[in-house]
């Protein structure tokens, strides 16, 4: 009994001492001292997450849709969207990458210790929100991320947001001039290089000024000796995806064409493929991957249901390999006069006229899928069924590149009277040369079969050498033409070059109306999308969501 009593007393004393020393820690469940499970993420992890998840989102469905708006592929190519089309995208952007950027900004501003992280986050915020304003117009911006005060955030004026985005770029540039004891890590884009981020901030301002039609601001920007732009490919603002299957961090275009058992990419527009084939454009085997050499039989009921334009009579392109108008454009012969090699080659370019509802049954193994550029799929040395995780998938999303910079300057010089110090032809040559080089670089890294030596290619079409192709395009520039003729020519070349970034093409078209030579949709239940509709969840839960008609109401800078 004496021993038991001693044990009880000792246990009681131990509990009292434990309680008196650690009661606060025991009962304060909000404090997490586990170093492996911190309550707040570090800036490097937040930055990496904001870049990967943000860019993957923009490079996915939104990018696919903008390419569809511009006849590159068939995503929403009939312009028919609903408020439910972008529910997941809208909610994910605000709940994941945007809030991560905001956390970096808030933490850095409160501590005053990380001005370089702050600058990087400010530029990314400016880029992300610029795309959102371009797509939606008014969005929650000043009123977003306010905790309990922002449960139903208001929608801020799109013009006011744009002004603040330009200011954010200037703040970022100022922050890069400050001394920081902390180096920027977790940067998946520029690897913490402040000179690269400075160029990105300046070129983003150029892009925004161009949307605003502010020639004076552009002139001041390029006249400033201290301002450096993205002027060569090694300085491009681009995101390189990974090659992991689980979790899948590969390029969205690659995932659609190669990640599943069969290819699932929608369709490429026939106009794009035909014009590139007709022009003997050497980017064709880098952009497109053929899956078949077989020719479908219109007399076979099963084949007929799969053939493009089998349900309509008003297609311009139809089933390319059996359409005399197309075979003559590409080979200068009727279908029956093509060689076997020519027939098999053209059969692999299996897409759609714009908004053609025909086909679809059993055509996954027939559709042309993305090639080695920009999604790091396969180079088109032979027809090969997609799917099955062939290829790498570690392609790029070109966000703001040197060729875009030169196209911006060319447009500003032609339409806004800006003096860039270069001729239109020189700007065009710089743009095309840089883009061709990037296609070759990404494509040859993605697939060992890829080659930039056109003389070694074995296709039933003789493609033009890259350098000669650029020279021919530049030589044909209408230097003596009027503004409309020059923009038509330049922006049609931008249409080809910005393959993989639909935002650029979509914005240029809304700014200028060019290129105006794109095929009209065969059927269009709605008009051309001047913006995209707000998410249904916002309409249901946020009473401040504006009432807009997406094919009637323009974003603020789209004045015509």
Biggest sheet descriptor: 2 strands, antiparallel
Beta-strand segment tally: 4
**Element string (H = helix, E = strand):** HHHHHHHHEHHHEHHHEEHHHHHH
| Overall helicity | 40-55%
Strand order of the largest sheet: 1-4
* Total number of helices: 20
Radius of gyration: 27 Å
Low-confidence stretches: 1-33
Structural class: mainly alpha
Q: CA-to-CA gap between the ends?
A: 97 Å
Beta-strand content estimate: under 5%
- Give the integer mean of the pLDDT values: 92
Apparent shape:
globular
Please give a structural write-up.
Helix content is 48%, strand content 2%. The protein has 20 helices and four strands. The protein has helices spanning 2-27, 43-69, 87-95, 97-111, 115-136, 158-176, 194-212, 215-223, 252-259, 270-278, 284-287, 301-306, 324-330, 340-347, 402-415, 424-446, 466-475, 483-497, 502-512, 536-541, and strands spanning 237-240, 288-289, 369-370, 396-400. Strands 1-4 form a two-stranded antiparallel sheet. α6 (158-176) runs antiparallel to α7 (194-212) and α16 packs antiparallel against α17 (466-475). Mean pLDDT is 92; it is low at 1-33.
